[in-house]
Please model this.
Amino acid sequence: MKVKVVTRILEANDRIAVENRKLFNNAGVYVINLMSAPGAGKTSIIEVTVKNIIKNLRIGVVEGDIAGTDDAQRVEGLGIPVVQINTGGACHLDANMINEAITDLPLKDLDLLIIENVGNLVCPAEFKVGEDMKVMILSITEGDDKPLKYPLMFQESSALILNKIDLLPYTDADIEKIKRNSLSLNPSLKIFEVSCKTGEGISEWTGWLQSLVK
Amino acid sequence: MKVKVVTRILEANDRIAVENRKLFNNAGVYVINLMSAPGAGKTSIIEVTVKNIIKNLRIGVVEGDIAGTDDAQRVEGLGIPVVQINTGGACHLDANMINEAITDLPLKDLDLLIIENVGNLVCPAEFKVGEDMKVMILSITEGDDKPLKYPLMFQESSALILNKIDLLPYTDADIEKIKRNSLSLNPSLKIFEVSCKTGEGISEWTGWLQSLVK
Model:
């Protein structure tokens, strides 16, 4: 019985995700669903990404959080359109939330829309929102055991951003193990090693992203 | 309709949590539900806690993960009873999972049972499992904005362990802001600043825990 309910929720979600995808295609906007555990650096990655490629692309952002508008305020400071979704109790964004949020965005004036999901390594990977690709961030401070413990997100993502590599000397995390286990789950995963603090690796990430959008 | 389904699931969960609580009380075992985001250090906290107080208390562990048995193997190395729950897709433990898992534990021979929840700052806080108290861990590398973004877990927890404080000099996190906002959500929250790596603050945490169990 429980399984049936969950299946029906996912089916309804996927139907709305297809609608969203049509809206995005018609507007000519490329859409990323950005996922990670809490505090891995989703908003920081958005900030450095926007600063690196703002001259070439018109970017908009949807911020997903349980509560609060901290992230939307950070993004608004960059001078780009942003909408905040507060999910209340829900631990992930779904297609319907995105369907409502995008009515407040000038989709036709955007080249790239970045959707920042709720901080959670589990459920966000289960809900399509109409995106062109999913991208996940893993902070190296979270440890090297995460791919095998949270496999779905690694399998569903097109790219993995390994963030906070400036902290690598101060942790026991084995970055080669992270990469090896991530690729065993998803051989086509594109991996970037970056630090939002030092700027290391950011241009590789933004260069690749830009090549997909244009 | 959706709300009704969710309410019914939570009601059913709470009934089983009451049953679990009776089993724990009858066996004379004190139970902690340990929660955090992925990679904040739940298993490391269990390791240092067991090493610090194993002479005085008989401890057992339930490990909750989406997939894998890494954590159970780490705990087994300490020579104490451990059961691994693999939730499949579920992003949290519930009372029924615990009800089944504890049949494999010698409850009457334990003083303290530590239940390590799935790494997630959201849903674990919504599901009672029959515990005496909830304890949460926040790694300071996750940033100082987490209390206001994930308020429920801070409100539901009796204690907050701020872990990885050895990394404080290398991050921008404002630990006073974390403490201030956590206490504004939950004025009776007990806060410990610790490092599993250096051992700093661990004896304060284990001393307090031991005083509750005995």
Remarks:
- Helices of chain A lie at 2-27, 42-53, 70-76, 95-101, 146-149, 151-156, 175-185, 202-213.
- The mean pLDDT of chain A is 94.
- Chain A touches chain B at residues 2, 5, 9, 37-39, 65-68, 70, 89, 91, 118-123, 126, 139, 141-143, 145-146, 148-152, 164, 166-167, 170-172, 197 (CB under 8 Å).
